[in-house]
Amino acid sequence: MKKFIQAFLFLSTLLILAQASQAQDMCKTNPKYCKVLNDTAGMKMMLITLPPGAKLVTHTHPVTLVYCLQGGLYKWTYESTGKTESYQMKPGDHAQGSPEEAHHSWNAGKTTIKFLIIEQD
């Protein structure tokens, strides 16, 4: 019985850690600025609309594709290091990336930014 309880606790811990390591749902953590356009076949497409000064709460990403529809100055800070980066987005800009660590981001410019994010589940 003791081995069963130890095994149960071990497997429960692994399950909790596995769930914690998955990327946070961008639209669930930022519903005011994020709209799910499609969620099928292990891919999720979202439209992000950030008016000037709008901030996204801390979140992570799995493998991601980004396509800019409406540009502006976009900044983000990584939680673990405090390092801030920025990018002047222009319509048509696109990028792809591997999973990202926890960060928060915001529109640091004077125009509304719109971009599509496609994430792999």
What does this protein look like?
- The strands form two sheets. Strands 1-2-9-4-7 form a five-stranded antiparallel beta sheet. Strands 3-8-5-6 form a four-stranded antiparallel beta sheet, with no helix packed on it.
- The protein has a single domain (24-120), classed as Jelly Rolls (Sandwich), CATH 2.60.120.
- The chain has 121 residues and is an alpha+beta fold.
- The chain is globular, with a radius of gyration of 17 Å.
- The N and C termini lie far apart (38 Å).
- It has two helices and nine strands; from the N terminus they run H-H-E-E-E-E-E-E-E-E-E.
Q: Roughly how many Å is the radius of gyration?
A: 17 Å
* Helix content percent band: 10-25%
Identify the quaternary structure here: single chain
Average pLDDT rating: 85
How much of the sequence lies in strands comes to over 45%
Q: Give the neighbour order of strands across the main sheet.
A: 1-2-9-4-7
Please identify, by name, the CATH architecture.
Sandwich
CATH T-level fold name = Jelly Rolls
Profile the largest sheet.
Answer: 5 strands, antiparallel
- The domain count comes to 1
Query: Uncertain segments of ≥5 residues (pLDDT<50)?
Result: 7-22
CATH homology group: Jelly Rolls
Global outline: globular
* Spatial gap, N to C terminus: 38 Å
Task: Give me the count of strands.
Answer: 9
Task: List the topology elements.
Layout: H1 2-21, H2 26-29, E1 34-40, E2 43-50, E3 55-61, E4 64-70, E5 72-78, E6 84-89, E7 94-97, E8 100-107, E9 113-120
Antiparallel strand pairs: 1-2, 2-9, 3-8, 4-7, 4-9, 5-6, 5-8
